[in-house]
Write a structure and sequence with these properties.
The protein is an alpha/beta fold. The protein has 7 helices and 8 strands; from the N terminus they run H-H-H-E-H-E-H-E-E-H-E-E-H-E-E.
């Protein structure tokens, strides 16, 4: 079975070569759908003067969205694909981007960021999605001081494809309780998506 990076590279690098629009490169159905996912984050988590890590940042559009709204946060984006980081740095030279795989490399210290956000990294079917989710959540909670926010494709999506991984929000909520947090699940913004907000447990 190809490893996670191989699957990501084979999916996204051809899109970088084929498309100019950011949402098409990132395999979102529209630009509006992409920003709808960002909007769930900013409506539900206070990012003012917060340090924000964007995992799987792609072209860095979350930073552009926050900047255009006047949200003063200390943004860092990280992506496994160097090609994405190059595009992000060209599009947003005022932001900080890192090329690396934080799930394989020891890049960040514990409690390095107030908020950790990731959009889309759980979407591709990699063959062991729940194991990856477990490992990812453990690390994301470790590097965050306040909250971890991520989205997933909804099991009720009207047009499923084998290429992607779909999940039941209730099952994901139950799954996440083992990490000591009580997740808030938001489903009211797109018909094929849901967002999970996990406050970091303390004590």
């Amino acid at each position: 079975m190809p490893d996670h990076e191989d699957i990501i590279r084979r999916h996204y690098v051809p899109r970088i070569k084929r498309y100019d629009e950011h949402h098409k490169i990132l395999d979102w159905e529209s630009g509006t759908a992409q920003t709808s996912r960002f909007d769930v984050l900013i409506r539900n988590v206070d990012l003012s003067n917060a340090s924000l890590l964007d995992v799987g940042c792609g072209i860095g559009d979350l930073w552009g969205y926050c900047r255009d709204l006047g949200i003063a946060c200390d943004y860092t984006g990280i992506d496994i694909l160097g090609e994405m980081v190059e595009l992000a740095q060209a599009a947003y030279p005022d932001a900080r981007f890192i090329h690396g795989d934080m799930f394989k490399q020891d890049i960040f210290q514990p409690d390095s960021f107030d908020v950790v956000f990731t959009s889309g990294i759980f979407n591709l079917n990699i063959g062991n999605n729940m194991q990856f989710l477990k490992e990812a959540v453990e690390l994301l909670l470790k590097v965050s001081r306040r909250a971890v926010v991520f989205n997933m494709l909804h099991i009720k999506s009207p047009a499923k494809e084998d290429l992607y991984s779909y999940h039941d929000p209730a099952e994901i909520g139950y799954f996440l309780e083992r990490f000591g947090c009580t997740p808030v699940i938001i489903e009211d913004y797109l018909g094929n998506d849901f967002t999970v907000i996990c406050s970091v447990p303390h004590g």
